[in-house]
Write a structure and sequence with these properties.
CATH class of the largest domain: Alpha Beta
EC number: 6.3.2.10
Number of strands: 23
CATH architecture of the largest domain: 3-Layer(aba) Sandwich
Subcellular location: Cytoplasm
Pathway: Cell wall biogenesis; peptidoglycan biosynthesis
Strand order of the largest sheet: 9-10-8-11-12-13-14-15-16
Strand content: 15-25%
Radius of gyration: 24 Å
Family: Belongs to the MurCDEF family. MurF subfamily.
GO molecular function: ATP binding; UDP-N-acetylmuramoyl-tripeptide-D-alanyl-D-alanine ligase activity; UDP-N-acetylmuramoylalanyl-D-glutamyl-2,6-diaminopimelate-D-alanyl-D-alanine ligase activity
CATH topology of the largest domain: UDP-N-acetylmuramoyl-L-alanine:D-glutamate ligase
Low-confidence stretches: 475-480
Distance between the termini: 39 Å
Largest sheet: 9 strands, mixed
Number of helices: 15
Structural class: alpha/beta
Shape: globular
């Protein structure tokens, strides 16, 4: 049986108002020739490079057609193209049409911390209860949201759309494009403060995800944070039913007991009137709280919350977002290993506090390396886009309670120099001004039996340190 195409030339032309130069059928949508698959519609977006420069390559790799604003140089006039006035606007039109033709229940998710990992948790849980579509990676911006929608098969039952922002006014238009039935806000924290005057400003922007809610929609909101009232007021102003999640007694879905046990988290709580117990296969209080939010979303959709609680245990964090792996330092002696926690994708005070709590609960191995005692080691890169108080925010990390359980903190970047200076002598490791220098130092700072956390904003480039530590390994193995 022939699979139903995602888009035909006629459908795409109708959706965008464009002109198709040939009759074609596309099985997917791609914006990158490095990952394009035969049968995809290639979208020639203008970003760092003009996508029109890659149309010929996309067609050579088997693209069904290309979405363009002109016939690119070196491409035949009769090549399979969809010609439109503006490629990004046409991608939005495709996303809008895909949303309109689908009966899927749509969930929009945003938050300063945890939106991508929670989106993946929702993907895992909802996949157990119906055909589920969700964004790749963290495709959550002005092109990522329409691309995710344009890729949505017509028979999708649940769609999870991640929506992010860097500046005011970005979230509401994307939410109106996605038209969610349920929205979820994981938390509001000090991130992108350079573009906002205060935490309240960030909360108002996050709260605007409710602007796109379908009539009768539900807003699943973090009830523990100080700006929760801003989120609730905006949601209710749009006629939404509000469902709160968190740890406090005011929440409809609450985690009453959270136990971090090395690489897992056990959660006991209440989902409305129903007692709930579930395990997350990753250590982290934030994973536990967001897991309760996931159950609240499932409840809002009228699905099986008990099955969702079971299925949360099938989720594990992706690389760069708290994924854990064991690195072998010796090809002969199997016990000469250390554990790496890769959390190098983003950082703000809230997410670093959560990551350090995970590190503090990690189980080390004694009697293996030259130090003879396993240590908990943090390698922390700069937190970026924090605004005028960034120096104080870095220095204040030294007062986090989880620091007492750590053995050494190494710092990367000019902002992290202020944390380095504030650390007690017992904890103060090395400081370097850029990640490349830590790449050369890191192999000398760890030993068998250690647990090593690497965390920083993406722009701090501490992912290079993660790569250097991985290269020490003979055969990396999952510790989960």
């Amino acid at each position: 049986m022939t699979a139903t195409p995602l888009w035909t030339a006629t459908e795409a032309a109708t959706a965008t108002g464009g002109k198709a130069t040939a009759d074609w059928q596309a099985s997917g949508v791609s914006i990158d020739t490095r990952t394009i698959r035969p049968g995809n519609l290639f979208v020639a977006l203008k970003a760092a490079r003009d996508g029109h420069d890659f149309v010929a390559q996309a067609l050579e790799k088997g693209a069904a057609a290309a979405l363009v604003s002109r016939v690119p140089e070196g491409v035949a006039a009769d090549a399979p193209l969809l010609i439109v006035p503006d490629v990004l606007a046409a991608l939005e039109d495709l996303g809008r049409a895909a949303r309109a033709r689908s009966d899927a229940r749509v969930i929009g998710i945003t938050g300063s911390v945890g939106k991508t990992s929670t989106k993946e948790m929702l993907r895992t849980v909802l996949s157990g209860q119906g055909r589920t579509h969700a964004a790749e990676a963290s495709y959550n911006n002005h092109w990522g949201v329409p691309l995710t929608l344009a890729r949505m098969p017509a028979d999708t039952e649940f769609a999870v759309i991640e929506i992010g922002m860097n500046h005011p006014g970005e979230i509401a238009p994307l939410s109106k494009l996605a038209r969610p039935h349920v929205v979820m806000i994981t938390t509001v924290a000090a991130a992108h403060l350079e573009a906002f005057e205060s935490l309240d400003g960030i909360a108002h922007e996050k709260a605007s995800i409710a602007d796109g809610l379908e009539p009768g929609g539900v807003a699943v909101l973090n009830g523990d944070i100080e700006t929760s009232h801003i989120l609730q007021d905006r949601a209710r102003a749009h006629g939404a039913r509000v469902s709160l999640f968190g740890e406090g007694p005011q929440n409809d879905h609450r985690a009453e007991k959270i136990t971090l046990v090395d690489t897992t988290t056990v959660v006991q709580g209440q989902a409305g009137d129903m007692p709930v117990l579930f395990k997350v296969m990753a250590a982290g209080r934030h994973f536990a709280v967001n897991g309760m939010g996931v159950i609240a979303v499932v409840d809002a959709l009228g699905l099986d919350a008990g099955l969702a609680a079971t299925d949360i245990g099938h989720w594990a964090p992706p690389a760069g977002r708290g994924a854990r792996e064991r690195i072998s330092l010796d090809p002969v002696e199997d016990d000469q290993t250390f554990e790496l926690i890769d959390d190098a994708f983003n950082a703000n005070p809230t997410s670093i506090a959560a990551a350090l709590e995970v590190l503090a609960a990690a189980r080390t191995d004694d009697g293996k390396g030259r130090v003879a005692r396993g240590r908990r080691i943090a390698i922390l890169g700069d937190m970026l886009e924090l605004g005028p108080d960034e120096i104080a925010m870095h220095a204040e990390l030294a007062a986090l309670p989880w620091m007492a359980q750590l053995d050494r903190v190494h710092c990367v970047g000019p902002r992290m120099h202020h944390l380095h200076a504030a650390l007690p002598e017992r904890l103060r490791g090395e400081w370097v001004d850029d990640a490349e220098k830590m790449v050369t130092r890191a192999p000398h700072l760890i030993d068998a039996g250690d647990v090593v956390l690497v965390k920083g904003s993406k722009g701090s480039r501490v992912s290079l340190v993660v790569d250097a530590l991985r290269k020490l390994g003979q055969s990396p193995r999952s510790s989960e």
